[in-house]
């Protein structure tokens, strides 16, 4: 009985919920501000992993929400659920293999309704490797309450995943075809109408492209080209290839003349095409006879043998004749030919006739002059009689006047108390040339100079005192004036004798003293 009542109560609750949803949906169906919960849509290939978001907008207020995610478990596998953080108290199962999958947000301690909007959760799905091409839908069911424990109904918008499934190629043979000159042929290949791809084999293991299998056009053939018309293809009737080269031949005509004949060469013509008549740019030929000489009769050519009129092309001579002299050459005028103006003998040039201009020495009062030569004809000055060195600076021959200075002449001797004076004068004319002051003499104190003693040998023998005859006595005799030894004078001899006697006495006493000391 209790089970029947529970079942009946559940049915009644379900009907109430559906009616409430219908009422809410009707109230907001025509409003852009209707509360909505939207599942995002995306695309994927078989075997891909994709994210799908559940987003809430125009939330009128709630404290708890239960969402049930419905999806095809044969096509999609739920891998992960990430809470968006809008509502607190989220709970969900760790068993991702069931569908529908439940998400629950409950906050019993909320003081008021939550009116936040945004991403409620992000669901990560893996598309089955065996999924076929098509669309799979992710839908929602709801059970949402507000603070007053009234049901809140949202528009639930399902999301779709457009799947590109595993494709099984069904290939169609495209047979090989030869190319022509107007249509490309192709190799044998295969085409899958399902995916639009091309393959080299029926099993579709080697992919290719239509362009890669296309063969190039074959060349046109047949027909014959000329220099004015290309060849015409025997197959398609189109012109092809290049023009044929010109067929050059030798044809004499004024329009082909390159250079006319001269006295040294024949006329030269360009070859011309026998088909179209066009002249060659490079191929030529000679034709005809040599032309007559072209003499220039208005201008004489000449050398030392004579003069003539020359051919302008080959220099051949006409009207040759010997020169007619205008008269002998002079100093300034050459000998020329009266007919052609040729210079037979150049002007002789100027011959210097030199006159010596004597030189003279300068004095104390007058300038002198160097000797030089003057040409009587041209007036030029020269240093020598052969006119080899010209004097262009005429002032260079002048020898300037100059005094002859003497040595210094003392006019007044200097003393320790007064200055002196001296001068130099010209030894020729006596003119005083320079004066100078002589400084006063400074007193000079001379220190005596001591020299090495002069050795004087004495031949005085003291045999009775124990001295040998070879013993000598030395003494230094010093002058009282300057400390030097005085020689060659009687006073020195007297002093020297006295010194020798004194030295002898000293030597004797020294010997006597040593003798007595040794006997003791």
From TrEMBL:
Q: Where in the cell is it found?
A: Secreted
Q: Which InterPro entries match?
A: CBM2/CBM3_carb-bd_dom_sf, Cohesin_dom
Q: What is its main location?
A: secreted
Signal sequence annotation: 1-29
Report keywords, A-Z.
Membrane, Repeat, Secreted, Signal, Transmembrane, Transmembrane helix
Location of the Cohesin domain? 37-152
Q: Where is the composition biased (Low complexity)?
A: 446-457
Note whether Secreted occurs among the keywords. yes
User: Region (Disordered) spans which residues?
Assistant: 446-473
Q: Where are the transmembrane segments?
A: 492-513
Q: What's the name of the protein?
A: Cohesin domain-containing protein
Q: Which organism is it from?
A: Ruminococcus intestinalis
């Amino acid at each position: 009985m209790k089970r029947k009542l529970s079942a009946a109560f559940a049915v009644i609750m379900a009907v109430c919920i559906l009616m409430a949803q219908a009422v809410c949906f009707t109230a907001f169906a025509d409003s852009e501000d209707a509360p909505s919960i939207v599942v995002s849509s995306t695309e994927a290939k078989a075997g891909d992993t994709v994210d799908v978001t559940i987003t809430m907008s125009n939330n009128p207020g709630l404290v708890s929400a239960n969402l049930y995610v419905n999806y095809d478990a044969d096509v999609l596998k739920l891998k992960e659920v990430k809470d968006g953080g809008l509502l607190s108290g989220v709970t969900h199962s760790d068993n991702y293999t069931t569908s529908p999958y439940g998400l629950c947000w409950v906050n019993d301690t909320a003081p008021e309704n939550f009116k936040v909007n945004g991403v409620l959760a992000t669901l990560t799905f893996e598309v089955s490797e065996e999924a076929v091409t098509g669309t799979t839908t992710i839908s929602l069911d709801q059970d949402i309450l507000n603070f007053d424990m009234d049901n809140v109904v949202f528009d639930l918008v399902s999301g779709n995943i457009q799947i590109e499934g595993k494709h099984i190629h069904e290939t169609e043979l495209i047979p090989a075809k030869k190319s022509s000159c107007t249509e490309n042929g192709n190799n044998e290949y295969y085409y899958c109408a399902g995916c639009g791809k091309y393959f080299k084999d029926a099993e579709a293991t080697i992919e290719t492209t239509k362009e890669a299998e296309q063969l190039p056009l074959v060349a046109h053939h047949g027909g014959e080209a000329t220099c004015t018309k290309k060849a015409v293809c025997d197959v398609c009737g189109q012109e092809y290839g290049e023009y044929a080269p010109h067929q050059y031949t030798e044809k004499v005509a004024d329009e082909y003349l390159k250079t006319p004949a001269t006295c040294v060469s024949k006329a030269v013509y360009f070859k011309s095409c026998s088909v179209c008549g066009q002249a060659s740019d490079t191929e030529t030929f000679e034709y005809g006879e040599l032309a007559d000489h072209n003499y220039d009769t208005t201008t004489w050519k000449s050398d030392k043998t004579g003069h003539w009129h020359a051919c302008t092309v080959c220099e051949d001579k006409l009207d040759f004749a010997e020169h007619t002299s205008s008269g002998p050459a002079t100093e300034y005028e050459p000998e020329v030919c009266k007919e052609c103006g040729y210079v037979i003998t150049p002007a002789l040039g100027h011959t210097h006739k030199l006159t010596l201009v004597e030189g003279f020495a300068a004095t104390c009062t007058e300038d002198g002059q160097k000797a030089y030569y003057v040409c009587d004809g041209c007036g030029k000055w020269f240093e020598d009689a052969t006119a080899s060195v010209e004097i262009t600076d005429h002032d260079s021959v002048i020898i300037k006047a100059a005094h002859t200075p003497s040595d210094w002449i003392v006019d007044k001797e200097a003393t320790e108390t007064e200055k002196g004076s001296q001068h130099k004068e010209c030894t020729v004319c006596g003119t005083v040339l320079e004066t100078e002051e002589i400084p006063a003499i400074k007193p000079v104190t001379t220190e005596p100079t001591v020299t090495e003693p002069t050795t004087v040998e004495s031949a005085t023998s003291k045999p009775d005192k124990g001295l040998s005859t070879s013993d000598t006595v030395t003494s230094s005799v010093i002058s009282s004036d300057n400390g030097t030894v005085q020689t060659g004078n009687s006073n020195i001899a007297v002093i020297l004798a006295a010194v020798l006697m004194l030295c002898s006495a000293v030597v004797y006493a020294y010997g006597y003293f040593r003798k007595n000391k040794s006997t003791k």
